[in-house]
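User: Can you predict the 3D structure for this chain?
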Amino acid sequence: MSRLDFMAARLMRNDGRIARMSIPQGNLLADLDSRHVALIGNARSLAQASHGPAIDAADLVVRINRAPMPASASHGSRTDWLALATRLPDADRARLDPDRILWMSPKRKRLDWRTASGAGFYLHPQTDYEALRGRLSAPPTTGAMMIDLLLRGPLASLTLYGFDFFASLSLSGRRTAADVPHDFSAEGAWVDDLLHSDSRLTLVR
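Assistant: Here is the predicted structure, written as structure tokens:
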């Protein structure tokens, strides 16, 4: 698809045309086969820990949005996949240098050409977003969407770092829980249920 065609599809909210630029979800999940995956959230509390070496030791490191990384000792240094729900400034794109970008937001108007035309681009289906929204009774965070997506794949393990469900707020900004549309209590309870039902999942507190 040309850039002009992409811009027209985005303007007309033609999700089907934009989705042609995406790797199929089945192919994306197949890439997880037998891999140990680290999903890094943006909780401020992670900056006080020393999980960097464990994060970098994972087979696949997935980060979220602008993915602030105050120090390699706490956050590690690799970014293999980047899950986005916001536009990514050029400086952050260069800093993170992900192998693959996954566009998780249902707001396609935020999706830029550089992201959509990149190698390995993935567009998360609107139906998957709506299903998780219904389960949580609130718009899901990018982190929740990634947990839901990754656990569908044949991965060996999924370890969550930097997830405290906004108890320590976010390294990405100064917003409080009242300033965002998510239900962090519901997400925490949902993850707790997953921890009991799926032995592949670990939450590093």
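The mean pLDDT is 95. The CA atoms of residues 5 and 17 lie 9 Å apart.
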